Amino acid sequence: MMRFQNIFLVGPMGAGKSTVGRQLAEAISFEFRDSDQEIQRRTGVDIPTIFEYEGEEGFRQRERQVIDELSEKSGIVMATGGGAVLRPDNRQDLTARGVVVYLHCSPEQQYARTSRDRNRPLLHTEDPLERLRQLMEERDPLYRQVADMVVSTERRGTSSVVKEIRRRLENETI
Residue ranges of the alpha helices (H) in 10-127? Predict the structure, then answer.
């Protein structure tokens, strides 16, 4: 497994990228980084505040810079934000600099996991579940385009997902 320089987790909000990423990094002795947390650390404010003052485009510019910098490192597991795949430069960097794992789950599962989270500006809408469905329709092809492997997190525990990723990496069935 150590032939892989980095592992990048992509997928929709609520798919488990941060939780799986932390456990995976620990299991393979890599450093864990979360692009959204890095943006918050650098700016000193939460993501909804960035969206409020800079809009989604301002956030995406910050995300682009963080993904470029973090993906240049070696020996990291990085959880990306759900919209990271929207920018072609991000997709190019992720695919060129590591193994990309798409953590997939249904919009219904996403909703169950994110419905109480106020740190999700794209869900501040009349019908958050419908918004999740729209985002999935738009982004699923992009997640699949960059993915070396697709792993379902639907109704699964974190350790089960981590074990599957490790097994597939070790067997190189990607």
Answer: 17-28, 35-43, 47-71, 88-97, 107-114
